From TrEMBL:
The name this protein goes by in its record: DsbA family protein
Coiled-coil residue spans: none
One MF term in the entry's GO annotations: oxidoreductase activity
Disordered: annotated span: 1-65, 77-101
Segments passing through the bilayer: 110-128
Family matches, as PROSITE patterns: THIOREDOXIN_2
């Protein structure tokens, strides 16, 4: 059963920002309820396209418009019984040039040569666009705008005692989000953030609101995130920042476990292991026990598992999780997973192409802003 905090990718949840558009509203009216019941041929009505004659056309080539003079004998000639005029018309039709040819008479070898030329021209055009196009040679479709990659990717900065600040949450320090115009402030770009992955000075940041108990979050984490990391994060083009949005007691407990792992510098390893374990339990809500969370921590490489377990049981990270939930609700996040890429919100476990297209668009904006 799907809970209200799980955004179905087919019908992503909208999230209202105070004083502005919903955070999850990307402006796409493709699933707008106003389109239901629209007459055929209007937006919202699927149109079937096919090949061949239109079903509304006359049945065959013999059907000719009554007002047309093409292929028809003048009604005045017919009324006058002018057989000579009719014979002349027939004779004129028979007197075609002797060298008139159809497409079928072209030698097959010529068609082959013509197809080869088209393939050659098309291939040269592709290579030219690939080499000299906007991406400066990025033939894999990544960073087509040629944006400058970030270089500050030393990972989160540890505290003096060697642990990490697992209390971090909320938007950029010193900022607030009141309307959609402030939405880019969700990106913290904090060097000490253990919930961030990628260069702090990457041209684009993707902030996510997620839940370890959410099956759609698991789908994104397993199907899409690894490819985004390989193509964009590892190359310094994208930074990913996690935010808790845990609406149930099992979700809150799992979020506290995530912060216990983050305090030891193992949040992203814990995230991977947790979603793997969630999928292994089925497509529903795993409702992890403390012992299961401890096993996930071991898989993730958390060094002090005893401390990890103690912090879950004594509620060390309960308050930061509550504050993170309040922050998510304050900006209108109503379902998970929820993303803000640059200044563009996305909602749900959408196809990977949606993320790539949005990242490329935001890279283009970043490149233009530098010029």
């Amino acid at each position: 059963m799907t809970r209200p905090d799980d955004a179905d990718p087919r019908t992503p949840d909208d999230a209202n920002v105070p004083g502005g558009r919903p955070v999850g509203d990307s402006g796409d009216a493709g699933h707008d309820a106003d389109h239901d019941g629209a007459p055929a041929g209007t937006p919202g009505e699927p149109v079937e396209l096919g090949w061949g004659r239109d079903p509304g056309d006359p049945a065959g080539p013999a059907a000719v418009d009554a007002n047309s003079t093409v292929g028809a004998v003048s009604t005045a000639q017919a009324a006058d019984g002018d057989d000579a005029a009719g014979d002349a018309a027939v004779g004129a039709a028979d007197e075609r040039p002797a060298d008139a040819r159809s497409m079928k008479t072209v030698p097959p070898a010529l068609w082959v040569w013509f197809a080869a030329v088209l393939l050659l021209v098309g291939g040269l055009g592709f290579l030219a666009g690939d080499r000299f196009g906007p991406g400066g040679g990025a033939g894999d479709g990544v960073n087509l705008a040629g944006a400058t990659a970030g270089s500050n990717d030393g990972g989160p900065v540890a505290k003096e005692d060697g642990t990490y600040d697992a209390t971090i949450m909320g938007p950029r320090a010193g900022s607030a989000i009141a309307t959609m115009e402030d939405i880019a402030e969700v990106h913290r770009r904090d060097e000490a953030d253990p919930f961030a992955l990628g260069a702090v000075d990457a041209p684009v940041v993707m902030t996510m609101f997620s839940d370890f108990e959410c099956p759609f979050c698991a789908r994104y984490a397993q199907d899409t995130q690894p490819n985004l990391i390989a193509d964009y994060v590892d190359s310094g083009l994208l930074r990913i920042e996690w935010n808790d949005s845990a609406g149930t007691p099992p979700s809150a407990q799992a979020a506290q476990a995530g912060r216990a792992a983050a305090a030891q510098g193992k949040f992203w390893e814990f995230q991977d292991a947790a979603f793997d374990a969630a999928v292994a339990k089925g497509n529903g809500h795993p409702e992890f026990t403390v012992d299961e969370l401890v096993e996930i921590a071991r898989t993730a490489g958390v060094e002090d598992v005893d401390l990890f377990k103690k912090q879950i049981e004594d509620g060390t990270w309960e308050k930061p999780v509550q504050e993170a939930n309040a922050y998510a609700q304050s900006i209108g996040v109503q379902g998970t997973p929820m993303f803000v890429i640059g200044a563009t919100p996305l909602s749900g476990a959408l196809p990977e192409e949606n993320f790539r297209d949005t990242i490329e668009l935001e890279l283009m904006k970043a490149e233009r802003a530098e010029q």
